[in-house]
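Here we describe the complex-level prediction in full. Unlike the single-chain runs in Section 2.1, the two entities below were treated as one system.
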Amino acid sequence: IQLTQSPSSLSASVGDRVTITCRASQDIDIYLAWYQQKPGKAPKLLIYSASTLQSGVPSRFSGSGSGTDFTLTISSLQPEDFASYYCQQLSDFPRTFGPGTKVDIK
Amino acid sequence: EVQLVQSGAEVKKPGESLKISCKGSGYKFNSYWIGWVRQMPGKGLEWMGIIYPDDSDTRYSPSFQGQVTMSADKSISTAYLQWSSLKASDTAIYYCARQDVLCGGRCYGYFDFWGQGTLVTVSS
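The structure predicted for the assembly as a whole is:
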């Protein structure tokens, strides 16, 4: 299963609403996770089952979608949110990641 | 507290062998799959495979099958990733991660805790 993400990068300001899209090459139901990775750090799980927020993750992060189209939304971008974001399909082996979206400061 | 602690950075020559480790603590190590993820310099995440420490059942990505070997020693709560003959293209950061599993209509897993990463540099 191939995953595409759009955009590949974006520039935004603190307080902006940011939306990242992940598209799967076939139906994966809700079997999708989102991760955040900051430079020099390991990835961090944000969302699983397409829309379930991992414990401890701020509520400004939300996920939606099912089937082939998914969205990660940051409702009000904070300074600590500037990072790269990856989706991962959990449906079939291998459990592929999307190519990533880099969010940087405008 | 769940922790995965990986072994330190390695510098190797092409053709050499290598085994890196990932030690789990703060949870029942045998009961969770451990996954390995590659990140080449400046690139994205690549799912390499997973291993179930209790019985060493493995699932490899076709891209990595035959290129690496995953193993685990449940007696010391440690998973391993090894190469028999490194190439320059193996230069990357390798992360281990714990896979939590949800079962509803079917079971599926996601990586909820990650190690700090091991940088492997292969250069002549």
